[in-house]
Amino acid sequence: MSEHLSGVDDAQLERWAYGRATTPDEQSRAAFAAAELQRRTGAERERAKLAEAEHAAADAHARAVANGDVDDTASEHPEFPLTDDERRHRRRMLATGWAGVTAAALALVGGVAVLSQADPDPMAIFERSETQLDRNWTQRLESWGYGPLTAGPRTIEVGDEYVVIATRISTVPDGRSTAWDSYCLHVASPASTNDGSWGLSTVCSYPEKFEREGLTLPDRPSRTGGGFDTAFWGPGGEPRFSRNEPLYEETGLVSSVLDWMSLPMSVDPESPGENFIDDPERLLMGPAVVPVMFEGDAARVFRDVELVTSVLLISGERPADGPLLCVHVAVGDSDPRMPCTDLTTARREGVEVPFTVDGRTLVVAIAPDGRDRSDAVRLIG
Question: Checking phi first, is residue 97 left (phi over 0); if not, alpha (psi -120 to 50) or beta?
């Protein structure tokens, strides 16, 4: 699909990817647009990382030569060539060191905005007393479908009328707070129309991923260089905003089916839990519509068939049981199917749901976790 979108400009892709998508077709288009943006971002990021590493290596070498720490001629012909792992390690260390020097230099000229006093707990932002600005953004976010809020919002003004917002958002239609509430980071700015409306960028994550990686939200090309003004939150510390950052690897990557369920716009408030399970109190995330791609002949054979795939996370039947991932597949007027698998197995092996239409058998495949995962429909008979 990325090839089909290669001629679409970034602005249109962003509208598709981050705008409100209510139908399965719109959600599918949003997913493909996000994937194309991610592909472009990754390519640009790799170019920037290579240039940054080369710059850092040259600078470090020049300083070492000037200080007499290394022999310039000898360093060109090392006695023992580096292994691939050593090269990668050295490149990472050089790039990290150069990024640190750059950040320090920017801080001296006001390039980095620290949003609050340092605190290792990312949830400390919610301990701050609510302000009128926070209350204003509560109304806006919930009216735009980013809710119900279970923590926050807490807002920080970062200059140029931009506002960084931290929230936690329920991932079930009835708005209950569960252990799987999404962590969401938003950057808002006044719309160019000057009519009082706002533009909003958002990134969300499920708790495990937030605790491991935090959130990164590149918002706009920086005026101070070739990077992006970027908001960060977690995995340690409160939200912060930095000017002229590179585009970081993994930003926006849908590497797990849990990523779909962590997006507030994917949860349909008009699809209550009782439509899917007998005890809606067991619902932890979802149901969220997942865009699936028809592979090979499946697209031709079933192009007129309405297929909707939803995923939901429910608690186990006993307190000691882990959560279950359920995949609900509705095909036309046929009876839907919804197998459930323990979440650990589903993330490791994926989930396949076969069904038959007009004597032909297809399978909806929810892919296991991974960088290159893709949820698909395949014709198997």
Answer: alpha
**Which residues are CB-neighbours of 150 under 8 A, at least 6 positions away?**
168, 169, 170, 177, 181
Query: Among the residues of 118-198, which ranges form H helices?
Result: 132-143
Taking CA atoms, 165 is separated from 57, 239, 260, 351, in Å, by 37, 8, 21, 35
HEC assignment per residue over 67-91? CCCCCHHHHCCCCCCCCHHHHHHHH
Give the model confidence (pLDDT) of 227-276 as tens digits.
Answer: 888 999 999 888 999 888 887 766 667 889 999 899 887 776 666 677 88
Q: What CA–CA distance (Å, rounded) separates 311 from 258?
A: 9
Reading the block at residue 146, the tokens are: 């980013």
Direct distance between the N- and C-terminal alpha carbons of the chain, in angstroms, rounded to an integer: 25
Helix axes 84-108, 24-66, angle to 10 degrees: 90
Structure tokens at 187: 């950057």
Cα distance between residue 92 and residue 337, in whole Å: 47
8 Å CB contact between 36 and 59: no
Which one, of 367, 357, 372, lies nearest residue 298 by Cα? Answer: 357
As given in the structure block, the two tokens for residue 2 are: 């990325």
298: enclosing H helix or E strand: helix 297-301
Specify the pTM. 0.67
Give me the residues paired with residue 200 across strands.
Answer: 188
| pLDDT digits 0-9 by tens, 329-354 | 988 777 889 999 999 999 999 999 99
Higher pLDDT, 246 or 55: 246
Q: Which residues pair with 329 in a beta bridge?
A: 309, 337
Round to whole Å and give the CA distance between 16 and 10. Answer: 10
Q: Which residues pair with 294 in a beta bridge?
A: 377
Beta bridge partners of 186: 165, 202
Mean pLDDT taken over the chain: 76
Neighbours of 69 (CB within 10 A): 9
Single-letter amino acid code for the residue at 204: C
